[in-house]
């Protein structure tokens, strides 16, 4: 006898588990299916983000930042440290423990919200009376019937053609998070978020890191002024970044890899490394879902086709997160998950793609929301810009981290904030205020008139907003 639910969510990543929780809060009976397992076969909900993405990478970034501080920056604070030793197994072990805490936290939330969790692969079987027949293939197979189905199966790393991941020498984000020894030379293909963050981790721990990027411009999605500042900062850290390259043959031997490539000037080059991280994007994951069985429509890139409300071509079947259009960001998936749950319950969930923040957790951190200057120029929109350097911020000086600036872009006539761009300390936290202002369609004047505690990094945002009207007070 099939078990009946109002909602069955396939996938327990950020989009899936949040959709399940919100649907349960709204009084619906909910099941969530997820196949991710720990090394000993136990459930590991949380998807890529929790297991091999956002959470473990931040744990390693934090640990590597501490190591860098001890080795290179504590002396200026009058702290003399000698005989520093790196215990990489302990560092990786801490990362794994952080991941487990998040896995366990999601399982607790399922229990708290009376969500039935099934550990296994979920797939469509057929349309039936009362909704959709869903099969769970796991340690014990289950048959479910769902009135509504939410597909939240996420994405997988894209491999270079002819160079599959072995997670020993050719690494995806997964293998890059658990390298057993610091490589002497590390290559990274792709200067996006993953490449920069993981390249930063291993550079701090002692590797010589070279990043090869196909795009001619560094961080083309970011504001150009921010990208230039970032490239300058990374160069000072000896993080080598080459743009405009074309990757040729990659030869893998027992102990090294040789990457042939053409540089931006057209010259043939060769890079020999111990390990290679390939971070050239991600592809939607629909394998094993039973797409063809029920006729779930995919686009030519493999994404599940949805409308603006995340509805698929099938009745009462929804899809959210990395498996659909839009930015592949955990917080975007969460917002879609909440919105879909509310729509199923007859409410009017909403996701504003124009105020989704972007963050790169390097040092300095990079964060932005809204339009860049180059986008506003392309749109021929009249705007005003104000910026403020962390060099002039008292808290940044006290921290000893004055790299970067805050830039606010506002409509030339209405003063509405159109974009905010931050490179510098704690940019990932500072961007939230900008998102809030833009959600309320606030003006630069609004930010400038709000009292910010002193001394704080947030004062840099206030000063940048004041600078839009050419009246910054501390610069």
From TrEMBL:
Residues 5-337 form the FAD/NAD(P)-binding domain. Residues 356-465 form the Pyridine nucleotide-disulphide oxidoreductase dimerisation domain. One of its GO terms (biological process) is 2-oxoglutarate metabolic process. SUPFAM superfamilies: FAD/NAD(P)-binding domain, FAD/NAD-linked reductases, dimerisation (C-terminal) domain. It catalyses: N(6)-[(R)-dihydrolipoyl]-L-lysyl-[protein] + NAD(+) = N(6)-[(R)-lipoyl]-L-lysyl-[protein] + NADH + H(+). The keyword NAD applies. One of its GO terms (molecular function) is flavin adenine dinucleotide binding. Disulfide bonds join 49-54. Its cofactor is FAD. It holds the Pfam family Pyr_redox_2. GO terms for cellular component: cytoplasm. Its EC number is 1.8.1.4. The active site is at residue 454. Keywords: Cytoplasm, FAD, Flavoprotein, NAD, Nucleotide-binding, Oxidoreductase, Redox-active center. InterPro entries: Class-I_Pyr_Nuc-Dis_Oxidored, FAD/NAD-bd_sf, FAD/NAD-binding_dom, FAD/NAD-linked_Rdtase_dimer_sf, Lipoamide_DH, Pyr_nuc-diS_OxRdtase, Pyr_nucl-diS_OxRdtase_dimer. NAD(+) binds at residues 190-197, 213, 281. It is found in: Cytoplasm. Coiled coil: none annotated. FAD binds at residues 58, 122, 153-155, 322, 328-331. Binds 1 FAD per subunit. It is an enzyme of class 1 (oxidoreductase). Belongs to the class-I pyridine nucleotide-disulfide oxidoreductase family. The active site is a redox-active disulfide bond. This is Dihydrolipoyl dehydrogenase. The lineage of its organism: Bacteria, Pseudomonadati, Pseudomonadota, Betaproteobacteria, Burkholderiales.
């Amino acid at each position: 006898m099939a078990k009946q639910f109002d909602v069955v969510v396939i996938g327990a990543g950020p989009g899936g588990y949040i959709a399940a929780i919100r649907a349960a809060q709204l009084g619906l009976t909910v099941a969530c299916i997820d196949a991710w397992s720990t090394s000993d076969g136990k459930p590991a909900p949380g998807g890529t983000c929790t297991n091999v993405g956002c959470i473990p990478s931040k744990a390693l970034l934090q640990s590597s930042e501490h190591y860098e501080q001890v080795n290179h920056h504590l002396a200026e604070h009058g702290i003399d440290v000698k005989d520093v030793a790196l215990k990489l197994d302990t560092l990786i072990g801490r990362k794994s423990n952080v991941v487990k805490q998040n896995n366990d936290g999601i399982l607790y939330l399922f229990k708290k919200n009376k969500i039935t969790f099934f550990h296994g692969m979920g797939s469509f079987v057929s349309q039936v009376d009362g909704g959709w027949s869903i099969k769970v293939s796991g340690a014990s197979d289950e048959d479910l019937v769902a009135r509504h189905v939410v597909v939240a199966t996420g994405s997988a790393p894209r491999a270079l053609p002819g160079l599959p991941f072995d997670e020993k020498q050719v690494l995806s984000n997964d293998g890059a998070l658990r390298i057993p020894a610091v490589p002497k030379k590390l290559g990274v293909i792709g200067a996006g978020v993953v490449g920069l963050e993981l390249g930063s981790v291993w550079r701090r721990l002692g590797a010589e890191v070279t990043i090869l990027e196909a795009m001619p411009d560094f961080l083309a999605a970011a504001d150009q002024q921010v990208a230039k500042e970032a490239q300058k900062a990374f160069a000072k850290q000896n993080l080598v970044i080459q743009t405009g390259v074309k990757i040729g043959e990659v030869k893998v031997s027992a102990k090294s890899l040789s990457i042939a490539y053409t540089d931006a000037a057209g010259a043939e080059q060769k890079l020999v490394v111990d390990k290679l991280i390939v971070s050239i994007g991600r592809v939607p994951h629909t394998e094993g879902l039973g797409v063809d069985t029920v006729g779930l429509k995919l686009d030519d890139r493999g994404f599940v086709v949805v409308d603006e409300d995340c509805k698929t071509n099938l009745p009462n079947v929804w899809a959210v997160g990395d498996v659909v259009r839009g930015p592949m960001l955990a917080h975007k998936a969460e917002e879609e998950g909440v919105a879909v749950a509310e729509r199923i319950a007859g409410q009017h969930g909403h996701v504003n793609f124009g105020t989704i923040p972007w963050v790169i957790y390097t040092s300095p951190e990079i964060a932005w929301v809204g339009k860049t200057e180059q986008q506003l120029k392309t749109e021929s929109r009249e705007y005003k810009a104000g910026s403020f350097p962390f060099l002039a911020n008292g808290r940044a000086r006290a921290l000893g981290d004055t790299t970067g600036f805050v830039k606010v872009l506002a409509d030339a006539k209405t003063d509405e904030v159109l974009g905010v761009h931050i490179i510098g300390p704690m940019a990932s936290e500072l961007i939230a205020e900008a998102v809030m202002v833009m959600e309320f369609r606030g003006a630069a004047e609004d930010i400038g008139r709000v009292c910010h505690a002193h001394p704080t990094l947030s004062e840099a945002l206030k000063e940048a907003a004041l600078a839009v009207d050419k009246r910054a007070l501390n610069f």
